[in-house]
Structure formats: structure tokens, C-alpha cells
Design goal:
This protein is an alpha+beta fold. About 25% of the residues lie in helices and about 35% in strands.
Length: about 90
């Protein structure tokens, strides 16, 4: 998997905004991505040093569309911890 195919999008929520103070950032990642690939992708894309990567498999949910019930697909989330003093400028002002 290519380095730039690993990160799909940043996750910007109230909980993740609170984690910014601890130098932790969250991203939606590709299904087959490993911790090592996520670390290399974040370091290459944002020019920062990563200490730790936590990966969470988020299961899909049942949703209703009229009478039908469908299952949304599951996805993978990575929470990345950076070296103290570094930050990702992409998240500033959001």
C-alpha cells in the first residue's frame, strides 16, 4: 500500500479536539493499514515525529432508509500521539 493511500481523512469531533491538548490526532485510515504504515504516512505527510499509534476498528451500524434497514460499512480509525512540542497545523483553527 502506498504511503498516501493509508490516510483517508482527519476526524474532527468534540472528543478529538479535546485530545489535541495531549498531542493526539485521529484519522480515518485504510482497512488494510498497519500501525507502522500509519506512522510512516503521518510522518511523511505532516513532517512530525510520531511516538505511538492506536488503531480502532469501528463497526458499522444499522440505519433506516424508509422501510428498509441497511448496515453501514465498518471503518478503521487511528489515534496518533506526537512528540511533545510538535503539532499538526492542519487541525489549527477548526
Amino acid at each position: 500500500m502506498h504511503t498516501y493511500e493509508v490516510l483517508r481523512r482527519p476526524i474532527i469531533s468534540e472528543k478529538m479536539t479535546a485530545l489535541k491538548e495531549q498531542n493526539r490526532y485521529a484519522f480515518e485510515i485504510a482497512k488494510g493499514a498497519s500501525k507502522r504504515q500509519v506512522k510512516e504516512a503521518v510522518e511523511a505527510a505532516f513532517k512530525v515525529d510520531v511516538i505511538k499509534v492506536n488503531i480502532i476498528n469501528v463497526p458499522g451500524k444499522m440505519r433506516r432508509f424508509g422501510r428498509r434497514q441497511v448496515m453501514t460499512p465498518g471503518w478503521k480509525k487511528a489515534v496518533v500521539t506526537l512528540v511533545p512540542g510538535q503539532k499538526i497545523e492542519f487541525f489549527e483553527g477548526v
